[in-house]
Amino acid sequence: MKPQEPTNNKDNTYNNCSTLSVFRTLEENHIEYAYIGHFTNGITDSILSLAELNLQLLNESIKIRKRVYFILVEGLQNITRHQEFSPTHADKSGGLIIQHTDNQFIITTINHISTSEKDKIKLHIDKINNLKEDELKVYYRQILEQQKLSSKGGAGLGLIEIARKSNNKLLYAFEDLNNGYSIFFLQTQISPNKNENISLNNKRNLVLIKQIYHQLVDCSILFSISGIFVQDKIVYMLSLLEKRLKGKASNKNKIFNIIVELLQNIVSHADDYEINNKLGHYGIFYIAEKNDYLLITTGNYVRNEKIDLIRDNLDSINSLSIRELTERHRNILKVFKSGGNKNQTGLGLINLRMKTREKINYSFVKVDDNFSFISIEVRMKKETPRSYTLSIKSTDTTPEILLSFNDSKYFFKGKCLPKDPKAFFMPVYNWFVDYEKNPRNLTPITFDFEQINSGSKKALIKLFKILEQINDKTIISIKWVYDQTESPVYQFGQELQKKFPTIEFKFIKK
Question: Do domains 1-17+228-384 and 34-218 have the same CATH topology?
Fold first, then answer.
């Protein structure tokens, strides 16, 4: 049955970004979860932990589960190694969408690449798709023996491994952006039976996934997960979100607590609903970013007879001042301590209002004669970015340095021959130590030195130790500019790359 127009306290309109619309898009296309944004090693570890739990909960053979997990590992490594960053798309530079039907898993990875790399990737995948299983093994050995690994590792070996483990052809697509970058979609199907050809349905599915990706991006959704919610799933979700959230510890803790309240609300209060012959607490959780706010939203099914009670409770909580909410909170705790039922008190919703200082937005959409879909949204004001900029002009012996948080510009340029390197680099150390408290998602730093003395090399090693510490909170991307491979500047850059393997390096010849 087609849903009715939602009713709520804000006269929202039913559109592609409504909670039910997003939920139904994900459910109808069998999408278990989607992640949009930058990828770090910490984030990929948490995604893998969440995926491993989901695989354990599904009634799939161990063989299929191992193949899915292996391909996820390779796919995520491919993103973290080869992702490029357009300054205007840093927060939307990657994606992972996982679909699961009764007979197959479909994994789509999304990342930005330089448009100049597109033809090389296309030729590589086309060759992989045209080779038989024994030929793939030979091709793998040829690349391993003949090609040097790039600074990002891999040399295309990961794509061969994905094809071998999936037993299916790789499906791909590119979308060119207007700034020298392209979006690369790679889709892998894992099914019990080998598929020698890419079917029309597979191609249609990739087109559909591209549309869904853009819907999530247009709705500013950073992370979403849907399906049946259980307690163990929430634990792994929280681990992932903890690594994704930015800001001061106090603000992160507040957002984290709000997320816990909303997720527990689905587990505790959603009514059992049946989809595809499976009964459970179905719902959706997602985080979106709009202007100066984070929007944290959940949606789930409830029985129609409960709607009036829930609406009255929400309207009552929204009408109270903070002082009145504090008093009600205190009284409810007294009732609970005396043996009252905590689940019927609305304590979680009161906590949401008190933590956010914002009214709770909600909507109901009638699904059928028995159920409605309720969405609850809370807003959290983001921290205002600091405007601290370090700017040092160049001299005959020292480089120009610009470290600008607001403009996302970070570069060192010129001769690096200071008489007292420790004193010269001290403001740089202090800037990055402060930056670590609330870094941007992407930190691209350019080093364009004409000369470097031995004292500066020691100072730069100390700087890179600081960068290594914050590399899991942001993506440190180094562009090392050089004249010739025989130059001391190039050789020192190579030393730094070996000494700090977790930091991404790209060597640029002048």
Answer: yes
